[in-house]
Write a structure and sequence with these properties.
By secondary structure, the protein is an alpha+beta fold. It is 24% helix and 14% strand.
Length: 86
């Protein structure tokens, strides 16, 4: 899983794991296009096509890929923190 960051924004109507990082400034992609935001999936499965993006944006309560609910117990959260610091 990818660590949730304070700078990541959640999207009210999207998958619970979907995050956006809005970019300030004149950052550009490798193709020279202006970068507005980056998409992150906390599960590590970001959408890579328009169809996948649509599915992700329509899944408000569960992961659109594996139907997993976004409920992390305090024990899981503590284990994730321990793994990150190791």
């Amino acid at each position: 899983m990818i660590r949730d960051e304070a700078r990541f924004r959640r999207h009210k109507g999207a998958c619970p794991y979907y995050r956006e990082n809005w970019v300030a400034g004149d950052e550009q992609t490798a193709d020279g296009e202006v970068l507005l935001y980056e998409i992150y999936c906390l599960k590590g499965w970001p959408p890579v096509s328009q169809d996948e993006q649509s599915a992700c944006m329509a899944a408000t309560r569960r992961c659109w890929r594996n139907k997993e609910s976004h409920r992390i117990t305090p024990e899981e959260s503590a284990a994730m923190r321990r793994a990150e610091s190791a």
